[in-house]
Backbone:
């Protein structure tokens, strides 16, 4: 970090990183823009509890009054969950810093800040990716390019179901970002187990994930390692009904002229309302499952398994 005071790292996180103890990064856009109140705060705090119960230090990451903060306090999480804040991907970090704005950090911004603080594992829900129509709109998430430049292990349940999944997988190939399935050779479909697209590699244990990450770092490669962890079977939505809802969500976004950064929150909110909260329950269940696996991977990495 060029300016060591540019990012605030909690003493708990700093000490754990320095001592090589396991730490798990978590993003804040999931609770500032992805989940409705008051469930958003419950989910954010429950995730921290779950991480602690696994013997891992939680590092929730967001921007508080302009300051990128790694290891937010409970009071800070409560503030971000309760206020209308901006959504910060990497390019908004300096803007928030200069204007003093608070922000939820996307996967891209969170991965950047986690790495700056020395954290190697990050769990989230669903990744950003290539939006439908991107060949003319150029709308692809900054998550893609950032994950090609910033090394962490990122545990997710695939790219969000609203995205163009094959195009997203092609972009990860071009950007040289490895994508592996956790105990599956199918790319997970966020709310559903299987996106319908295959993967070339599978890993079967946290130790194997740790070994893959170590191999990548050992080669000096800059990219993250993406672990696709499918939603637990019992929590999955019905894929046929979901496809129909997603079609309607796209049509509504089109009708209302929704563009840019607002697109992802709009589509997720549409789906939550159209499924009467079922997609919300699925989102929370898969997130919990990813937090659990992230803790195991962080523990394996800290144990020096390679
Ligand atoms: N996954 C969720 N809910 C979310 C997001 C992901 O379950 O709100 C957020 C992540 O922070 C991700 C962002 O980085 O959406 C992608 O937004 P965009 O497509 O504008 O890059
Ligand atoms: Mn976008």
Residues:
């Amino acid at each position: 970090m060029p300016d060591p005071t540019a990012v605030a790292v909690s003493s708990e996180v700093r000490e754990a990183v320095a001592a090589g103890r396991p730490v798990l990064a978590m993003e804040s856009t999931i609770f500032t823009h992805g989940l409705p109140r008051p469930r958003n705060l419950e989910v954010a705090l429950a995730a921290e509890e779950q991480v602690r119960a696994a013997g891992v230090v939680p590092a929730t990451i967001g921007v508080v009054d302009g300051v990128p903060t790694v290891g937010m306090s409970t009071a800070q999480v409560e503030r971000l969950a309760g206020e209308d804040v901006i959504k910060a991907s990497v390019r908004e970090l300096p803007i928030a810093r200069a204007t003093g704005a608070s922000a939820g950090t996307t996967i891209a911004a969170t991965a950047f800040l986690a790495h700056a603080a020395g954290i190697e594992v990050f769990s989230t829900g669903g990744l950003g990716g290539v939006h439908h129509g991107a060949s003319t709109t150029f709308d692809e998430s900054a998550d893609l390019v950032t994950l090609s430049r910033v090394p962490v292990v990122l545990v997710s349940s695939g790219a969000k179901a609203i995205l163009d999944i094959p195009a997203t997988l092609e972009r990860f190939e071009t950007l040289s970002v490895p994508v592996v399935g956790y105990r599956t050779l199918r790319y997970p479909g966020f709310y559903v187990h299987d996106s319908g697209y295959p993967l070339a590699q599978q890993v079967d244990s946290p130790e194997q994930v740790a070994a893959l990450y170590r191999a990548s770092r050992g080669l000096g490669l800059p990219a993250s390692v993406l672990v696709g962890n499918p939603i637990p079977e019992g929590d999955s939505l019905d894929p046929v009904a979901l496809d129909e809802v997603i079609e309607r969500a796209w049509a509504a976004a089109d009708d209302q002229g929704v563009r840019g950064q607002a697109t992802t929150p709009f589509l997720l909110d549409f789906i939550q309302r159209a499924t009467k909260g079922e997609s919300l329950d699925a989102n929370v269940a898969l997130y919990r499952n990813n937090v659990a696996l992230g803790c195991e991977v962080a523990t394996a990495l800290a144990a020096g398994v390679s």
